[in-house]
Amino acid sequence: MARANAAYYATHDPFADFTTSPEITQVFGEVLGLWAAVTWEAMGRPDPVLLVECGPGRGTLMADALRAVGRAAPAFRVALRLHLVETSPRLRAEQARLLPGATWHEGLDALPPGPMLLLANEFLDALPIRQFVWREDGWMERFVAEGQLVEAAADFPLSLRERAGVREPPGPALAQDSTGPALSLESSVLAAPLIPALSRGERVQEVCEGALSIAAGLAERIARDGGAALFLDYGSVDSAPGDSLQALRAGKPADPLAAPGEADLTAHVDFAALARAAGAARVHGPVPQGPFLARLGLFQRTGRLARTQPPAKAAALVQAAQRLAEPDRMGRLFKVLAIAHPALPVPAGFEP
Ligand code: SAH
């Protein structure tokens, strides 16, 4: 999945295959920009402050955010230094057109130190997952090797098995080399209880090590340097087991295992596991996206903007806001989670 997605984002226009919230309405990026401004106030207005976006896509969210911040919070606009984490050269070029003056990084580790506000929409779902399947004699890992779907005995260490509540004795050891690469989980990730939801009754469990190590690393950094990070993505509040790998090709569901690099591969984000991994800082949420955006003023801002537009455009703006917030559209499946410095008050949108 890692190689397939790297190839996909490097060579395709992902937005031909799917639409994301910032592409649906400009108000999405605007209210997130104001969220960052309000959080910056609560941090005591550090200057300079890093404003970071992970996986900025076309740069739309950040362009909308900066425009709103420039009008409503000019002091924050002056204090912020824009840093973008993006691996796709093609998307970096698109982002550079909308966001001149940004600094790009391959990963979060490359960011300079200091207080930070971070936004990430539909970023974690693009990170590769590992899929484990329960079989008669133990957990197997399922993966693609040379175009074939294969399974090999899951080789996560015993301590992890114990933490995960897996009581069964490990299955017969399979030769590592015959069926696939040796499996080992990063030691930094191992520190977090990774697979708590493993249970006999469920057949498939997914783990996104990349997302977990990002959450753990960010939590440590935020606890040390101050700030907050906001993740918006689709997924479950519980570590619900199950196969969520899906592919979109030309806007239509496709076989995730066919034509690697040609389709956008995503998996549901396990917010419960993220929250556990971020234990070094304070975690707020996850809350459903609908009420979160409503609390940030999605509908008020949409209404104000709509009044300045011709009727057809005004109606489209209202419909776009509804699409993001209504429970049977994106309002419930999408969740929002914040990782914040423990001294900060509850961030906007997470009030009980
Ligand atoms: N946030 C944007 C785009 C979402 S698509 C929006 O809401 O419209 C996912 C984005 O993450 C793309 O920009 C993709 O190139 C980027 N991405 C995927 N894997 C990445 C990785 N490992 N590191 C950094 N960026 C990545």
Account of the 3D structure:
This protein is an alpha/beta fold. Helices cover 38% and strands 23% of the residues. It has 15 helices and 15 strands. The strands form 3 sheets. Strands 1, 2, 3, 4, 9, 13, 14 and 15 form an 8-stranded mixed β-sheet that branches. A 4-stranded antiparallel β-sheet has the order 7-6-5-8, with no helix packed on it. A hairpin with a 2-residue loop joins strand 10 and strand 11. Helix 13 packs antiparallel against helix 14. It is globular and about 60 Å long. The two termini are 37 Å apart. About 12% of the residues have low confidence. The protein binds S-adenosyl-L-homocysteine. S-adenosyl-L-homocysteine binds next to helix 1 and helix 2.
The major pleated sheet works out as: 8 strands, mixed
- In sequence order, what are the helices and strands, one letter per element? HHHEHHEHEEEEEHHHEHEEEEEHEHHHHE
Extended strand count = 15
Low-confidence stretches: 157-200
What gross morphology would you assign? globular
Give the termini distance in whole angstroms: 37 Å
Radius of gyration: 21 Å
Which structural class is indicated by helix and strand composition? alpha/beta
**Number of helical runs?**
15
Task: Give the proportion of residues in helices.
Answer: 25-40%
Compounds present? S-adenosyl-L-homocysteine
Mean pLDDT: 84
Percent of residues in beta strands: 15-25%
